[in-house]
Design a protein that fits this description.
Number of domains: 2
Strand order of the largest sheet: 3-4-6-5
Order of helices and strands: EHHEHHHHEEHEHEHHHHHHHHH
Helix content: 40-55%
GO molecular function: DNA-binding transcription factor activity; transcription cis-regulatory region binding
GO cellular component, one term: cytosol
Pfam families: Arabinose_bd, HTH_18
Number of strands: 6
Largest sheet: 4 strands, antiparallel
Keywords: DNA-binding, Transcription, Transcription regulation
Structural class: alpha+beta
Shape: globular
InterPro entries: AraC-type_N (IPR032687), Homeodomain-like_sf (IPR009057), HTH_AraC (IPR018060), Tscrpt_reg_AraC-type_HTH (IPR020449)
Number of helices: 17
Amino acid sequence: MQNKEITVSLNWVKSLLLFAEQQGCDRALILKKSGLNSDVLDKVHRLTMDQTVRLWGACIDETADPFFGLHMGEKVRPSTFHIVGYTLMNSANLSEAFDKLHEYQRLISDGGVFQRVPVAKGVWIIYHPRPGVLPFFYHQIDAVLAAVLAFSRWVSGELFSPIEVSLKREAPVDWSEYLRVFAVKPSFSSDFDGILISHEMLDHPLLEADEELREVHEQHAKQRLRELKSTSRMSDQVTLILQNHISDQEAGRAFVANKLGVSEKTLQRKLSEEGQTFQGLYNQLRKKLALDYVSDTSIPLTDVATMLGFSDPSAFYRAFKRWTESTPGDYRELTKG
């Protein structure tokens, strides 16, 4: 859904500008081409998503680099994400770090949501973009996934490779840069954007693991998140939490209310004020993800029920038939072309 209120942290924006400058671009010219005043970064804490997209467009034009996002993302370090980066860096392992990323990602950007999808070989870290009015450049997706891998390598001290990389974008004529950055050829023209990390790497201890420091940084992050949430729609917050925990059968109304720090009664009241219900949002998200997963032939149909938090495959099949008047198998065949 289009949302003009989606915003992005200046830490990410400044990293984007800095990288463009390092490639020889003129900062003032990029801001001008983006329609931004030269002093805007000193006056606000966040930019709108559409302002950020225009900034990306100017950087891409000025660098003329077809892999600009990929190159920018691979330079990411924990300090790029400020308090969120430090919280992640002091986590016990990558698995805990990704849990914290899910919890505090809005401090970096509202422009997307991460989802963990466990499969036999590991866990998919999937990125779902949430654009404003302007569509994302593929560079933005490249930057996010490259940043996830670069950050993971940095904090783990291991130059590991993901098991798989999935990208919605069409394959470029020359995909060697993707192979260099990810150390594996991505599957292009896929149904989702994500990287698959092994269970072994997710359990790998981090170099700077420190529970006391993590708790200190996390308290700061919680306060920043409370300030940001105070201006956000409740329905958007609920959807973000559900998307992060959709495979968890316990992710019901009480679970989400606890995550938001409100009572179930308050949650219901605020959703009602926005013309929404918890069950309605839950069903909408489940249906959307079900259509995405069933359309993706790389995901076994037998895994989809678990990925969506259904108690058993038959419950999923009944729900899918109700949504589409088709079985998952028939729907996959119809969407193959």
